[in-house]
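stuck on this one:
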Amino acid sequence: MTPLEKVEKLCSMGNLTYEEAKAALEASNGDLLDAIIYLEKQGKIHAPSGGGYYSSEKTVDASIIPYSEKDREKAHYHSNKENPFISFTKQAWDFCVKLVRKGNANTFEVLKKEEVKGSFPVTVLILLLIFAFWVTIPLLVIGLFFGLRYRFVGSDFEKTTINDAMDSAADAAENLKKSMDK
């Protein structure tokens, strides 16, 4: 808000002359809120009853209330948008929670001749693949050569071809094993 706009705002608030409003702003170093308080103390603007100023129309621009430019920037920044880091963190957290829920709702099964030998949430498999892939992957491959089959079970794997790919891998391991026996 420019100084002229501040002077006009003061003039309209208290039926002041231009000179009185300008003098009040100069006495308060250009701060509109301080100028209003200054004029109230002089009796040129009447303070509202009840200790507060309540009106249905906008009388003081909220962006000028902080006392320094730095405070004004902080108030403007926090009122208009959230901190980008906090926003990103919330989105990442929500994504991770959604992913873990899906992983816990679906299972990874280990079968031997259509009999389930083991079953655990997909979340556990993912954690094993992330933190112990050098053990997990070889065990899965060796399991194929010992007649184990793997499949994913759950609402997210009903129409996917991942189980077909797992069966193809098991068939390929079985065929390789047969070819080695000859």
